[in-house]
Design a protein that fits this description.
Blueprint (H helix, E strand, L loop, with lengths): L4 H11 L6 H33 L3 H6 L1 E2 L11 E3 L11 E7 L11 H10 L3 E6 L2 E2 L4 E2 L3 E5 L1 H4 L20
Parallel strand pairs: 3-4
Antiparallel strand pairs: 1-2, 2-3, 4-7, 5-6
Length: 171
C-alpha cells in the first residue's frame, strides 16, 4: 500500500505504534537510504545550477561533488562553493537530509554536529522535502540551514530530542 505523504501523519495516529520485525526494519532502512541518495543527487544538481546561474561560477559548478560514498566519516555529503574562488578550495560543506514528507524532520548524528561546530559558517544542512522515489525527483522544496550548530542548536527555531546515547563503562 502506498500512502500519500499528506495523509501519513493521520494514518500513523490512527494505527498507533506498530511493532517492527527485523525484515521490516531492513526495508525501512533501504528506503531511507534510497531517499537520501535521491536527495543528494537533487542537491548536487541544485548546487551546480546555483553556482553557474546565480554566482557566475562556471568552473566551481563543475567541481561540486558528492563525497558521502567515498568518505562516510566526513560529517557531510556534498562539497561545494559559496561562489567564485581564487584557489578552488571547497568552502561550502553540505549535509543533505531528505524526506518523502514535507515537514522539516530529520536525524542529525553526533559526527555531523561535531563537523558543523568545526566548520561553522561553511557548514550547511539542505533538507529536501517531498521526494518522489518513483521519479527520483521532489515536489517540495530545498530548505537551506546555514551554520546549523548555531541556527538549530542555539536560536530556538528548531526543537530536538536525544534518541540515543553511547554508553561506555568508566575504568
Amino acid at each position: 500500500m502506498i500512502v500519500n505523504p499528506e495523509f501519513s501523519k493521520l494514518l500513523s495516529s490512527l494505527l498507533g505504534t506498530k511493532k517492527m520485525s527485523y525484515d521490516e526494519l531492513e526495508q525501512k532502512l533501504k528506503i531511507d537510504r534510497e531517499v537520501g541518495d535521491i536527495a543528494e543527487q537533487i542537491v548536487l544538481e541544485y548546487e551546480k545550477n546555483r553556482l553557474k546561474n546565480e554566482e557566475s561560477a562556471d568552473i566551481e559548478s563543475k567541481l561540486v561533488q558528492i563525497i558521502s560514498g567515498t568518505d562516510v566519516s566526513a560529517g557531510y555529503d556534498v562539497e561545494s562553493f559559496d561562489g567564485q574562488t581564487t584557489d578552488l578550495k571547497f568552502n561550502r560543506h553540505i549535509e543533505v537530509k531528505g524526506s518523502i514528507n514535507y515537514d522539516v524532520s530529520f536525524y542529525w548524528s553526533s559526527g555531523e554536529i561535531k563537523k558543523s561546530l568545526e566548520y561553522e559558517n561553511t557548514y550547511w544542512i539542505y533538507f529536501v522535502s517531498g521526494i518522489d522515489r518513483r521519479n527520483q525527483s521532489y515536489r517540495g522544496e530545498i530548505i537551506k540551514i546555514p551554520n546549523p550548530s548555531h541556527e538549530v542548536l542555539e536560536t530556538g527555531n528548531y526543537s530536538s530530542n536525544c534518541t540515543k546515547y553511547h554508553i561506555t563503562k568508566n575504568k
